[in-house]
Design brief:
By secondary structure, this protein is of the alpha+beta class. It is built from 4 helices and 4 strands. The chain is globular, with a radius of gyration of 12 Å. It starts with a strand and ends with a helix.
Length: about 100
């Protein structure tokens, strides 16, 4: 099963590429939890863009995790918004789909 770990030292571009490699889906990373407005800098680490009060830490991401649960967990841990999109990044994935299904 496809999986990888996320921690605060990881750069945004690394998170996006590992996500794509593991699940085939695209990942959009935003500077705030609402997932609107400014996209996160590709060179920034997750810790450097983490919202004040967000706990950070390490997260194991598995392919059978639902899209909505993954997006909520990232918001809770890092205080940033992410949106899972299909492989060519043309539309957002269904929140009830698994991360593996989102990339197909």
């Amino acid at each position: 099963m496809a999986e990888f770990n996320i921690d605060g030292r990881m750069k945004v571009k690394t998170l996006k590429s590992k996500f794509k490699e593991a699940f085939g889906a695209s990942l959009r990373v935003y500077m705030n939890v609402s997932s609107k407005g400014r996209m996160a800098d590709e060179e920034a680490t997750l810790a450097s863009i983490r919202a004040e009060g967000a706990k950070g830490g390490e997260l194991a991401v598995k392919g059978n995790m639902k899209v909505g649960n993954f997006e909520n967990k990232i918001a809770e841990m890092y205080g940033i918004g992410v949106q899972v999109a299909n492989a060519d990044d043309s539309k957002l994935a269904d929140n009830e789909a698994t991360l593996i299904q989102a990339g197909k």
